[in-house]
From TrEMBL, chain A:
This is Large ribosomal subunit protein uL3m. It comes from Daphnia sinensis. InterPro entries: Ribosomal_uL3 (IPR000597), Ribosomal_uL3_bac/org-type (IPR019927), Transl_B-barrel_sf (IPR009000). It holds the Pfam family Ribosomal_L3. The keyword GTP-binding does not apply. SUPFAM superfamilies: Translation proteins. One of its GO terms (cellular component) is mitochondrial large ribosomal subunit.
TrEMBL record, chain B:
Belongs to the bacterial ribosomal protein bL19 family. One of its GO terms (molecular function) is structural constituent of ribosome. The keyword Glycoprotein does not apply. Residues 34-58 are annotated as: Disordered. GO terms for cellular component: mitochondrial large ribosomal subunit. Keywords: Mitochondrion, Ribonucleoprotein, Ribosomal protein, Transit peptide. The keyword Mitochondrion applies. Its main location: mitochondrion. It comes from Daphnia sinensis. This is Large ribosomal subunit protein bL19m. SUPFAM superfamilies: Translation proteins SH3-like domain. It is found in: Mitochondrion.
Amino acid sequence: MSTLGLLRTLFNPKIVTPNAIQLQSLNRTPFLVGLFFNHDQIRTMSRVKRRTTHPPYWHVLKNNQRTDEKISSDNLRFVQEVIQDKYKNKSPIKGSDLDIEKTEWDPKTKRSGVIARNIGVQHMWEKDGKKVICTVLHVLDNHVIRYVPPEEYAKSVIGAKMFKNRKPLGCLVVGAEASNPERFTRQYCSLFDEVGLLPKKRLARFIVTPNAALPPCTPLTAGHFVIGQAVDVYGKTIDYGFQGVVKRWGFKGGPASHGTTKFHRRGGTIGTGRDKARVWPGQKMPGHMGSERRFNRGLKIVRINMKYNIIYVKGTVPGPTNSIVQIFDTALPRRKFTEAPPHPTYFPPEDGTLPQEDIWDSSLHVFGSPSISV
Amino acid sequence: MLRRAVLQTFRQGLAQSFFKRYAVSLTETTVTHQPIETSDEAGERTVPTQKTGDESGNTVVVAPPEFRFIYPEFLPDPAMERRNRLREKLERMDMLQRRSVIEIPEFYTGSIMAVTVADANSPNKFARFVGICIQRGGSGLRAWFILRNVVDKQGVEILYEMYCPLIQKIEVLRLERRLDESLLYLRDALPEYSTFPMDMEPERRLNNSVVPINPLKVKLRPRPWLERWERQNLQGVEDLNLPQRFYDRAEKVAKPWEKYDLMLHYRKTIPAEEQEKIFAEVHSQLQQQELKRKLRRRRGSDNEY
């Protein structure tokens, strides 16, 4: 076996991100590459398809494919009445109505995550006057759709892959952004029939330990998180489309002037003539850039607005403004919880006392307070 | 040009809303609907809140039209990809919170201002800078302005973020406007046009209702300059006395069709209806804050005697 092959087998860690639906193996070890080989690159990722425009095969057809049918106004009204009848008998669940056992939180608990919309960026200032860029995340109307226990989830295709040599965990299906049922197909609406909820535009799966399971129809709000905690945010990065090599890979291109003929933003050479005498797979070239799944880890929550269900997170998240992201407790080992968070999720207090509307982290300067004097 | 076009659409919007809602009384509304001067003067400062009746008979509070010029940072960035109504509303709430602590006065480019900032490296922990505002921009909490002064024959420009909590005080020493929206050409002008004494006293204005326009024409230093001023249609600069080839090139490069491009201007501004909504939302709180400050000032002046 070649040295390269040996190295590949020795240093081939498979990092499984716990809350990811798809596995991603990180075979690149640039440190070693630089140490032993300065011109070869490990190109195992080149054959992996990084993005698809079609949904997975197990998804049911979601959006209504019918064109505008010519329905009379009476029939339209009847359809509206049917929809109202079907979905009107839903009452919000309070903490006492839950029929789960009051489970204890322990450091190995994995809580549910939350679906939110990245609504933009706001600048805030710390108490010493330093400016901080905070991303504003609007927690949409999340409801738990169903809980899949660990044994059942380990039998599914993705569950089997994820928990191949590990203890299986449960899966919570959470939906956000209730929408008009007329927009969706019958199969998609049937996913929500058990819970009796209006069909949601967005669905997500969160891997949870069984003690953090939630019954269907539980609402998840911004209060699910704690001020000062670290979160991971998953999103799809900004789609830049087909991009050249300078923007996509950071190549330097060529000189802008001094007689350069048609070589300003091109890649240049793509291989040697000697070694292997071909273009290596994974050679950096122009192509589609962006629209990839990424996690920004360890972002600190600096402010929570309970009234509007808004979380302010220090730093930036993947994706453009107004895109949907998923937020969960961090996987970074040193930033995990030391004290119990709202477990399994936050419920408003039963004695009717409203929680504090706007909660700030202690490091931030509150806007209504006097100016900072150093 | 742009501002005049926007001013006209805004006025049309107001006029339309006036005809749509049946006015409670003509006297209330005629004050605000006097035609505003087409030159770039700010509107009347003493105009009261316009309260017109709705079709249903409910009063609809509409902010006075000059709010657009006094509080331009309340309008969001017009780029549609980054707009979100909820975030803008939350940002406005934070801005009002900050304004309740510190007075951010009305100012324009060309006004002479003094800003006191908390500075750890200063002897008295506060640093005060006096200068002429040469540019202002940003929206929301990111709003900023640049002050320029010449200190010990060295030109100094400082960019201040209006809502930074380190700022202790913003005073307007002379409230006036110039013939241009951006005075960056002062960098290439003779230094006396940018020099202002650091211990300048705030000036009392004779006419409180109208912000004066200073028709000063600035003399530039000989070339080379930082920018091609001949291409920028500057009103506040004396005749540049350049060779004809500069003006010919400027004509070739110019885009005279842009002033007819309605969609371009539409994309660069917030529509009048939305502006009305935004200012109606914040206007009551801003008025309350102004009243409180006036009372405090009156009480302060009473205590002096």
